[in-house]
């Protein structure tokens, strides 16, 4: 298989990305308490869908600036807004059924090519409740992480992101996108240091075994302290 063809929603075979082993520098990125592999991705210029329209810069008039940028691997003026949200929603919907069937989390990154195209790395396959990812680095064009919460599990509060989901993105100054077994998609927003639903229950493929639980207790948005309180039994 070559990189010449088009793949759904920016998803290509692993051969379209160059990887090489190197020691991690700085804190490892953790997704739901997983340990990172010592792998760094170099993003290639494989064929991808056309550049989304209506991309909005990460900074500028009218954009919230509640989180001072101390460190970020994202490129200057990284896009954000409805066009990126729509790309993320479509991409996650494209891998959601496989993640549910495998009963494993899938994870990766969204990034911008030098030509300005928005793409997603091929998903890495994790466990039922974890997914290891390489540490993102400056110069790779990475603007956000993504991961699924896989299949429904009655003992897991997996209709909302975890506090670790948020802090692991915030540590690198990037956004994140999370899909749930109930078909929700959440945006982890570095600028507001919070997460919010960009679409609700059933807006993308949902696990047919999903059983709604405490739907009235699921908020539209959360901060890290909110999620820690939720995890300790509060809402």
How would you characterize the overall build of this protein?
The protein has helices at residues 82-102, 163-170, 224-231, and strands at 18-21, 39-42, 56-57, 79-80, 106-112, 118-120, 124-125, 142-148, 175-179, 185-189, 194-199, 221-223. With 235 residues, it is α+β, with helices and mostly antiparallel strands. It has one domain (24-231). Strands 5, 6, 7, 8, 9, 10, 11 and 12 form an 8-stranded mixed beta sheet that branches. The longest helix has 21 residues, at 82-102. The protein starts with 17 loop residues before the first strand and ends with a helix.
Keywords:
21% strand, DUF4329 domain-containing protein, 3 helices, 235 residues, alpha+beta, two-stranded antiparallel sheet, DUF4329
Distance between the termini: 49 Å
What's the average pLDDT? 78
Overall structural class, as computed from helix and strand content, comes to alpha+beta
- What is the H-and-E element order? EEEEHEEEEHEEEEH
- Extract low-pLDDT stretches: 1-66
Q: Please describe the biggest sheet, giving its number of strands, its sense, and whether it closes into a barrel.
A: 8 strands, mixed
How many structural units, i.e. domains? 1
| Helix fraction bin | 10-25%
| Shape designation | globular
What's the helix count? 3
Q: Report strand %.
A: 15-25%
Count of β-strands: 12
Radius of gyration: 17 Å
């Amino acid at each position: 298989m070559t990189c010449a063809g088009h793949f759904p929603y920016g998803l290509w075979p692993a051969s379209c990305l160059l990887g090489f082993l190197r020691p991690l520098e700085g804190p490892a990125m953790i997704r739901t308490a997983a340990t990172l592999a010592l792998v760094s991705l170099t993003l290639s210029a494989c064929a991808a869908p056309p550049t989304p329209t209506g991309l909005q810069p990460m900074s500028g008039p009218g954009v919230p600036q509640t989180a001072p940028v101390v460190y970020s691997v994202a490129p200057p003026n990284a896009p954000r807004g409805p066009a990126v949200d729509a790309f993320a929603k479509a991409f996650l919907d494209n891998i959601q059924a496989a993640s549910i069937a495998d009963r494993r989390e899938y994870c990766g990154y969204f990034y911008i090519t030098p030509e300005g195209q928005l793409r997603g790395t091929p998903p890495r396959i994790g466990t039922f409740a974890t997914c290891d990812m390489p540490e993102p680095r400056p110069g790779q064009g990475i603007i956000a992480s993504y991961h699924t919460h896989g299949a429904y599990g009655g003992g897991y509060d997996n209709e909302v992101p975890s506090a670790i989901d948020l802090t692991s993105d915030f540590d690198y100054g990037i956004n994140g996108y999370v899909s749930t077994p109930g078909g929700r998609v959440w945006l982890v927003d570095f600028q507001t240091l919070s997460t919010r639903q960009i679409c609700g229950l059933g807006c993308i493929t949902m696990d047919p075994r999903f059983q709604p639980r405490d739907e009235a207790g699921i908020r539209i948005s959360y901060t890290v302290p909110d999620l820690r309180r939720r995890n300790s039994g509060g809402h």
